[in-house]
Design goal:
6-stranded mixed beta sheet; 327 residues; Deoxyribonuclease I, Chain A; alpha+beta; 7 helices
């Protein structure tokens, strides 16, 4: 089995026109084909309307997958909590060669939103407001050929960019004061860590039902291995201090890679591992190898500074190989 994860970065066929999207397809489709995945987790899949008043659908994704094996895969995608319709931006999608027995999305289903009253807002906030996650978590139960199920959790945590504070922004990335930026950065951290907690609670819910469950948590964590969101989802023995809980910890597959290959994003020359695959001990037993396809990765900050409208994604795809028992 080959399990893959890829942040496509704003996959949309509208904003810059047909020629640009054709360039994106020419770059992204070979990357997907190289993954040769049986189960594929995608992040930042935008949804489009064919005409006003019609529900959004994954038109750009359909066009990207045309002519590939993925076009015939089983599929589930995230949607708006109220309607179930895909959001315009940053949906999650799971594709599977094998049938998907069940799926669900979680958005404050296991962790209620925190309540917070900003202290730097202008005008001053009179009362606390809920701090909501930016995106849901998507879970799918994939029926494997040996009769067992693979529990796939696809997530995309908030980037470490300060959240807006009323009356305190000069522009998209400019602030009126350091305290206001600091409070926005604190709120962004609260969102990212809170959603990591919801993912961790989901993992334990699955393990409560089956202690030998095959679990994989994949996606863009917007955090490196030593940062708080990863520690929350992993639940390492070093953090819990309880040997009886060791079987509930998740293992980052990138630990098997040489440090020189352990990066999925380039940011001003820095090599960062922001995309991860964490697996349960039961699934780790069948793990053979992890690949990070970062050979042609561009530097996201350099591209932004130069105004380069690159058709590629600035995240490298990951693919893990598992040797499952014969059915």
């Amino acid at each position: 089995m080959r399990l893959a994860s890829f942040n496509l970065e704003n996959l949309d066929d509208v904003p810059r026109g047909a020629p640009y999207f054709a360039e994106r397809i020419a770059v992204l489709r070979p990357q997907l084909q190289r993954l040769d995945a049986d189960v594929l987790c995608l992040q930042e899949v935008d949804a489009q309307r064919d005409r006003k008043g019609r529900p959004r659908r994954f038109r750009a994704l359909d066009r990207l997958l045309e002519g590939t094996a993925y076009a015939g895969f089983h599929r589930v995608g995230s949607g708006r909590r109220e309607s179930g319709e895909p959001a315009d931006k940053h949906n999650l999608v799971i594709l599977s060669r094998w049938p998907i027995a069940a799926s669900r999305q979680l958005h404050h289903d296991l962790v209620p939103p925190a309540s917070y009253r900003p202290v730097t807002a202008a005008p001053a906030a009179s009362e606390a407001a809920p701090v909501l996650w930016d995106r849901p978590i998507l879970q799918a139960s994939v029926g494997l050929p040996d009769g067992r199920r693979l529990e796939v959790v696809n997530l995309h945590l908030r980037a470490p960019l300060a959240a807006p504070i009323a009356g305190q922004k000069l522009g998209a990335f400019a602030w009126k004061s350091v305290p206001a930026w600091a409070e926005g950065f604190f709120l962004a951290s609260l969102k990212r860590c809170g959603q990591a907690l919801e993912a961790r609670r989901l993992v334990d819910q699955i393990l409560d039902a089956d202690r030998e469950a095959l679990i994989a948590v994949c996606g863009d964590f917007n955090a490196e291995a030593q940062e708080t969101p990863l520690r929350i989802v992993r639940g390492d023995l070093e953090d819990t201090g309880n040997g009886a809980l060791a079987g509930r910890s998740l293992v980052p597959l990138e630990r098997a890679l040489p440090e020189s290959q352990r990066f999925s994003v380039l940011h001003q020359g820095r090599r960062l591992m922001l995309d991860h695959m964490l697996v349960s001990r039961s699934l780790l037993a069948f793990h053979q190898a992890l690949e990070v396809h970062n050979e042609a990765l561009g530097d996201e900050l350099v591209a932004y500074a130069t105004g380069n409208q690159s058709p590629e994604s600035f995240h490298a795809p990951l693919v893990a190989t598992f040797r499952l028992p014969r059915p």
